Amino acid sequence: MLAVGALLSLIVVGVVGLLTATDPVDAPDTPVPPAASAQAARTAPATLQIVCQADHCPVFVRIPGGDVLINGQLSKGEQVAYFDGKLDVVLDDASLVKIWENGKPRPPVESGERVAFTVTRGQGQPS
Predict the structure, then answer these.
(1) Which end of the chain is more exposed for a tag (fewer CB within 10 A), N or C?
(2) How far lies 11's CA from each of 3, 5, 23, in Å?
(3) Is the pTM of this model over 0.70?
(4) Which domain of life is it from (predicted)?
């Protein structure tokens, strides 16, 4: 009998939880503008943007002396963008990707050419 009472209590608590969770939340009548720095970060170009142009593109990007951001393969059409202040980049075959540094395209290279470089966030761009 005690088990039945406990089960009914749990069912009631669950139903009450569902009913209160589905009530619409009052949204403000006027939209709240985003912070100026967040808006600037969205409009500023990425420190680094890479777009894969082949079936598979091996890519390695890390923060110097810190975290590895990607160490793997991108698929055709897949892209990554990073807004960090400084990045180390290694591309086993840089001809397989298109690269932009601070919004400017990096010149293409010969097929099969391995490229390693460091890119720094452009002057006056938020980090």
Answers:
(1) N
(2) 12, 10, 19
(3) no
(4) Bacteria
Residue 25's pLDDT is 47
Q: What SS3 state is found at 59? A: strand
Does 17 reside within a domain? no
Name the residue range of residue 60's domain.
45-120
Residue 36 lies in a domain: no
For each successive 10 residues of the chain (127 residues), what is the average pLDDT?
58 59 47 49 86 97 96 98 97 98 96 97 71
In a domain, 51, yes or no: yes
Which of 103, 105, 121 is closest to 43 using CA atoms?
Answer: 103
Report the length, in residues, of the chain. 127
Q: How many domains does the chain have?
A: 1
Compute CA 120 distance to the chain's CA centroid, rounded to the nearest angstrom.
18
Distance of CA 27 to the CA centre of its chain: 28
Among candidate residues 93, 94, 113, 114, the one with its CA nearest the CA of residue 105:
94
